[in-house]
């Protein structure tokens, strides 16, 4: 893992310059989706910040948590900066063993669901990096690591799920561990998902959980099933390939659903007025 390129702090002008450059150089089959005031794309170069060692110890400055744990979560952990998420500001987050960050409180829920529907954690804002039933109690597993980087104004907070396995008692030592991480950026309030290795071992795990086939990836605000504030990248789809990243960036502001409706009506009205103007001009030409 140490051979993988190391994390580099993104420039302050990240939302406009960095994202544009990545999109211009992106592969033809890149995916971009938008919802809930955010846009997500996989048209970015993959990079990896290693926070752990083969000895299951953290690198300098990092902290190891949730080792030998199943369906567990940490207490509130300081990000080191204020982070805006769906127009709410947070400076702490909870980390779960099941591939999530949550705000305000946390959950041991290991049954991933679509982010736009009702769920047991409906009142909890969450970031699902690869929300699934993961465990660090099986042989060959490690735990979760986190660390803050950078200077005021351009800091980042990284969480790495290192060598975790899909919970399946029938396959335990036969399955393969996976590693993935998330980065929160202070300057842009962007969120980056990074997938280093997502192969759970094929038929050794039933059902096969490789590449996120049994996971949910995306973000969700409290009560998203009512207010529509969520962005789902994938749900039970084998699309989280090793060596890939997903960048989620907020729009200028996260509008309320009512504001979105008014904006839509305004655009329709403007188009109608312009259409009438063009027709009148053509008659008098």
What does the overall shape look like?
globular
Task: Estimate the helix proportion, in percent.
Answer: 10-25%
Gap between N and C termini, in Å? Answer: 69 Å
Overall domain count: 2
Residue share in β-strands:
25-35%
Number of β-strand runs: 15
* Rg on CA atoms, Å: 21 Å
Work out the helix count.
Answer: 3
Mean pLDDT across the residues is 83
Largest sheet: 9 strands, antiparallel
pLDDT < 50 stretches: 1-28, 253-285
Q: Could you give the order of the helices and strands?
A: HEEEEEEEEEEEEEHEEH
Structural class: alpha+beta
Provide key terms for this protein.
285 residues, alpha+beta, nine-stranded antiparallel β-sheet, six-stranded antiparallel β-sheet, 3 helices, 15% helix, globular, disordered N terminus
What can you tell me about this protein's structure?
With 285 residues, the protein is α+β, with helices and mostly antiparallel strands. It folds into 2 domains: 14-254, no CATH class; 257-285. 15% of the residues lie in helices and 32% in strands. The protein contains 3 helices and 15 strands. The chain has helices at 14-24, 224-227, 257-284, and strands at 32-35, 38-41, 63-65, 77-85, 88-95, 100-102, 126-131, 134-135, 143-149, 156-166, 178-185, 191-197, 216-220, 230-235, 244-250. Strands 1, 2, 3, 8, 9, 10, 11, 12 and 15 form a 9-stranded antiparallel beta sheet that branches. A hairpin with a 6-residue loop joins β9 and β10 (156-166). The longest helix is centred in the last third of the chain and has 28 residues, at 257-284. The chain is globular, with a radius of gyration of 21 Å. Residues 1-28 and 253-285 have low confidence and may be disordered.
